[in-house]
Design a protein that fits this description.
CATH architecture of the largest domain: 3-Layer(aba) Sandwich
Bound molecules: adenosine-5'-triphosphate
Shape: globular
CATH superfamily of the largest domain: P-loop containing nucleotide triphosphate hydrolases
Oligomer: single chain
Low-confidence stretches: 1-9
Strand content: 15-25%
Number of helices: 11
Length: about 270
Amino acid sequence: MSAIASPAAATPRPPAAAPLLSVRDVTVRFGGILALDGITFDVDEGDIVGLIGPNGAGKTTLFNCLSRLYVPTSGDIRFRGQSVMSLARHRIADLGIGRTFQNAALFETLTVLDNVLVGGHHVTKSDFLSNALGLKWVAREEEAVEAKAMDKIRFMGLEEYVDRPAGGLPFPVKKRVELARALMSEPTLLLLDEPAAGLNHGEIETLSEQIRRIRETEKVTILLVEHHMSLVMAISDKVVAIDFGKKIAEGKPAEVQRDPAVIRAYLGEKL
Ligand code: ATP
């Protein structure tokens, strides 16, 4: 055998881009319940990744670990190669990880604009004292934040609701408000927990367009938990399927959809 390396072997390859998010062997126990059992997968920058699984599979538990609401029993979660396991919960937003919740967690008595403004809070510099002193730079900062909130409101097609209290709005509109609020923090990674819950067919179409636009225009990487398979399969670059806390499949949407383990997990449910 020749010891001379081929030209291809001699040319060092550029290192593959590190994943934006790495979930490594994450296990979560609640007493006797093993909610997550050694979950491992990556989310590459710029991708839309769908996380699927039947009820009780562990999807929300994983989201809660990613946003540090839960502490995994073991395993590691890395963002841009850095472990987030020892970070305080409030530092997650500073890192560039935003999220929405299954039940659209809005302040019901506040207007749409005020709810969206809340999302920009952690990126402003003013504090109680500078606000109380009515400093000029504080006023300018407030104007800039409000202009940005209006941008997000327009982006999500919410202009007509801007001054309405969030509490009285239909659920699909609330979900859009929550998305607009999440965008205020200019996340690098956005975790969407069942964004299509309660939406009808037409509204799901609109939502898939909006999620694609968030990726394209706002350059946000997206990890979404969703039960609506048509949405997941249409917009995801990759799908990760879990069942009883274990990963059962990972790959392109069409591959995962025809994976026997996934079909078994959903037996009786419409894929
Ligand atoms: P769904 O699609 O219905 O929202 P899911 O895939 O999000 O389900 P999880 O809510 O993560 O599933 O639940 C995974 C398992 O962990 C379930 O058995 C659930 O009962 C259990 N579990 C979740 N949170 C807790 C908790 N705080 N305390 C005890 N058990 C929990």
